[in-house]
Amino acid sequence: MSRFADALNEQIAYEYGASQQYVAIAVNYDAQTLPRLAAHFYRQAVEERNHAMMIVQYLLDADERVVVPGVEAPQTEFADVVEPVRLALEQERRVTDQITALAKLAREDGDLVGEQFLHWFLQEQREEVSSMGALLTVVERSRDNVMLIEDFLAREAVGDEGADAGAPAAAGGAL
Fold this sequence. Notes:
The chain has 175 residues and is mainly alpha-helical. It is built from 5 helices and no strands.
């Protein structure tokens, strides 16, 4: 297995871990009867799961071994309404760094197909960091009246706008 394929298998674990963290955040907001925040993070969880499956499909198409990983348990306790969004932004920044490192590795290895595959992910991460940063700003401003956050999410499209025709194929199809 190439260094790049090894690193992609490692990234699958990070994507599944991000998905699980978003489920934990969504459940936290659901338990507080904050349905719009919960729905936002449930959607984010599915998106991260689909990112993992896109990498799986790439590896299958490249005739590389796929390792389906276990993941660490996510953080489930949060001090206030802001902490989960702050954690989500930190996670998106970390994933951006991981994808950037993968693109550099593909380039170093002369794997132009692998590098091209990651271009979509780099663009996606720029959008994710931007939208999560905006949500954090709103949540920090509205921490004393969480219904303002719910109203914001009802009015504004934050995050994923739906299926992207330019996205890589996901193993099993995007669900």
